[in-house]
Design goal:
CATH superfamily: Aldolase class I
CATH class: Alpha Beta
Strand content: 15-25%
Number of strands: 7
Low-confidence stretches: none
Shape: globular
Helix content: 10-25%
Oligomer: single chain
Strand order of the largest sheet: 3-1-2-4-5-6-7
Radius of gyration: 14 Å
CATH architecture: Alpha-Beta Barrel
Distance between the termini: 27 Å
Largest sheet: 7 strands, mixed
Number of helices: 3
CATH topology: TIM Barrel
Order of helices and strands: EEEHEHEHEE
């Protein structure tokens, strides 16, 4: 899995102060996407165990009380990302007390395959659906277009 950006402190992509990882790879190619540079699975840098360790360390940093981890992209549920995302989500749940996990995906919750569902079963919030520029609404919270749904899973 590759990633394009990692923010150890982020207040824009989910509730509270978070760590946010933008992964690479997206098949949806939404017209008007603000993050087209993440569409190729080969874009950005290789996600390493060292970065996974850093994310865990950042989430557990007591100087900054972080609410959780955000995974966006690209698409964290892209086939080339699912295994690494699952490993990271499992680590966060095991090693970081009471941290929530948010994922943005272009897939609909009802379209997920069994591998993608394993990830979703462990997270707290899923924002699903492709960005649709004709349904764009800047007043929406946590989503860009009105077809997208914020699923609070836990």
């Amino acid at each position: 899995m590759n990633y394009s950006k990692y923010y150890p402190i982020d207040v824009l992509n989910g509730e509270g102060t978070r760590c946010t990882l933008f992964v690479s790879g997206c098949i949806h190619n939404c017209k008007g996407c603000y993050n087209q540079s993440t569409w190729s699975p080969d874009a950005g840098e290789l996600f390493t165990e060292h970065l996974a360790d850093q994310i865990i360390k950042d989430l557990n940093d007591q100087r900054i009380k972080k609410q959780g981890l955000t995974l966006s992209g690209g698409d964290p549920l892209h086939p080339s990302n699912v295994q690494e995302v699952l490993k990271l989500v499992q680590r966060v749940k095991a090693e970081c007390d009471n941290k929530d996990i948010w994922i943005w995906t272009g897939y609909l919750l009802t379209e997920l395959n069994s591998e993608q569902q394993k990830v979703v079963d462990l997270i707290d919030v899923l924002i699903d659906g492709k960005f649709e520029s004709d349904l764009a609404d800047p007043s929406l919270q946590w989503r860009g277009s009105s077809n997208q749904i914020v699923h609070r899973l836990k």
